[in-house]
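Contributing new records

If you add data, match the layout below exactly. Sequence lines come first and carry their own label; structure lines follow with theirs. Keep one chain per record. Anything else will be rejected by the validation script.
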Amino acid sequence: MTYRPAAMLSICIAMAACSGAPDKPAPATETTKLQREDCYTVDLFDPPQITQASEVPQEYAPFLGRWSGGTWNGEWCHDMVVTHVTGQGVVTLLDMHAPSPTFGARASAYKRKARVFEDGTMRFAHGTVVRRYTLRNGKLHGHREGDGYGVLRAVLRRDGPPPGGDPVKLAQN
């Protein structure tokens, strides 16, 4: 079999262009790289108060709670605590990261505001960074871009039971 360099290059370019679709669900092997059991971000000295799911509209309640073990592109640990969601979909959350020499980042914990949109994504921006999170199969899938590192992805798992809601109903979302 004879390989032609120009043909192989065309195939590689086409495959690279198709592989970058931001909303395409990540394959299982990629998803496992985007989460780690041993990830550790920061200690919160005062545990945040999380609104009970029964006090939040049903379509927003699945976002509530502690989410952990995410790693941006398998390298930078990320946790989140969604403490409140209003009837209009406005979210209050704690956004936490471990230090990362690769990304030039120190350990951090920030209180942020986000919004849940009609398409089911939770989105927020800080500086030039834009992030969105989608619930799929009981996990929070994150997408981050705008800080010069390209597109970063992370998958966070629910840490503990949902706060006061029906665990079966919340887990299904």
